[in-house]
From TrEMBL:
It comes from Streptomyces gibsoniae. The lineage of its organism: Bacteria, Bacillati, Actinomycetota, Actinomycetes, Kitasatosporales. Pfam families: Methyltransf_25. Keywords: Membrane, Methyltransferase, Transferase, Transmembrane, Transmembrane helix. InterPro entries: Methyltransf_25, SAM-dependent_MTases_sf. One of its GO terms (biological process) is methylation. This is Methyltransferase domain-containing protein.
Length: 227
């Protein structure tokens, strides 16, 4: 009677191929920085735990008459919530690298009768706005998707008013930035942590430019601000 036993070289090849496949999949999963595909837009309408509208309000504190910049609005889940709070004298600028996303936001805004949203097609690493133009800026599950997020933070410091606010929301998906990493990047960019809600897996954090903190309070958590 004969038995068929997998040969050792065959087994080794199978293991090697499996390992290479797993490493390649992992590298793609964590390294891919392509913008979120518009074809999967329906998923963007799902409310992520920890990143609720009430949570965003509490950390961003939008007010009537303010000019606020949103980076990476996707289909407008946050835009349609924030814009009405700015009132007719305020303005929400939404900036995205994909025209389909901006068109989607503007169609939804029109259906809701919102007239204070202005779209800008651009890369967040080079913001086409003058210095000090905004009272606040926010990104929800967008910063981790942008290559060189530190450039976005540097641009935030430039386009924010000296006492402006930057809010970053992140969630544990494949582009997630752990809170500790964001805090280090922000510190190196001249931003001071002012408030945080949630865990490192799903959080909203508010930062302020060091220039604002130097005038109004102690520089407790940001060594970069003390320099
Ligand atoms: C995952 S979606 C988040 C959408 C929305 N904030 C939400 O929470 O539903 C990320 C958004 O960032 C945009 N984005 C990616 N890279 C960008 C870049 N370099 N500059 C500007 N926007 C970018 C994408 O086009 C997309 O709209």
């Amino acid at each position: 009677m004969t038995h068929t036993v997998p040969t050792r070289p065959g087994l080794r090849w199978a293991l090697a191929a499996g390992t290479v496949g797993a490493v390649a999949a992992g590298a793609w999963w964590f390294g891919d920085k392509a913008p979120y595909p518009y074809a999967q837009r329906r998923l963007l309408d799902l409310q992520l735990p920890g990143l609720t509208p009430a949570g965003l309000n509490a950390v961003l504190r939008p007010g009537p008459g303010e000019r606020i910049l949103e980076i990476g609005p996707g289909t407008g889940l946050q835009s349609l919530h924030i814009a009405p709070q700015l009132g007719p004298d305020g303005r929400l600028d939404v900036l995205d690298i994909q025209p389909e996303m901006l068109d989607h936001v503007m169609r939804r805004a029109e259906r809701k009768g919102l007239t204070n949203i202005t779209p800008t097609l651009s890369d967040a690493r080079e913001l086409p706005f003058p210095d000090g133009a905004f009272d606040a800026m926010y990104l929800v599950t967008a910063l981790g998707e942008i290559p060189e997020p530190e450039r976005v933070l540097t641009e935030a410091v430039r386009v924010l008013a000296p006492d402006g606010r930057l809010v970053v929301g992140e969630f544990f998906d494949r582009h997630w930035i752990p809170f500790g990493t964001l805090h280090r990047l922000a510190d190196a960019s001249g931003l001071h942590l002012a408030a945080r809600r949630g865990s490192t897996l799903a959080y909203l954090a508010r930062f302020r430019p060091c220039s604002a903190v130097a005038r109004t309070g102690p520089l407790r958590f940001t060594p970069g601000c003390r320099a």
